[in-house]
Specification:
Layout (H helix, E strand, L loop, with lengths): L16 H14 L5 H14 L1 H8 L3 H7 L8 H11 L8
């Protein structure tokens, strides 16, 4: 019997806003300081919600959004903020 495997995709498991919030918070806490985990989390959440609708809300093409949030992407902070706004995510500072 041959085993088959499918690639695990975080977006498949981010069904609720609570799941997405917990995931983003964990990535913010564990990010090594280069934004790579935050960028990946935003991309996963955007795919879970529908990249086309997020792209429309940001005014960025779907392809451009995929590229910016990919492993090789290096989005400008303004792009990150547009994606966060489209997702309804807010950055807050605690003290």
């Amino acid at each position: 019997m041959k085993e088959t495997f499918t690639r695990w995709d975080a977006a498949d498991h981010l069904r609720t806003e609570a799941d997405q919030t917990a995931y983003l918070n964990a990535c913010l806490a564990d990010d090594p300081g280069d934004g790579s985990l935050v960028r990946a989390a935003l991309g996963d959440i955007a795919r879970a919600r529908g990249m086309s609708s997020v792209a429309r809300a940001t005014g960025i093409s779907r392809e451009g959004l995929y590229r910016a949030l990919s492993n090789e992407g290096n989005p400008e902070f303004a792009t990150v903020m547009r994606v966060m706004r489209a997702l309804g995510v807010q950055l807050r500072v605690g003290g």
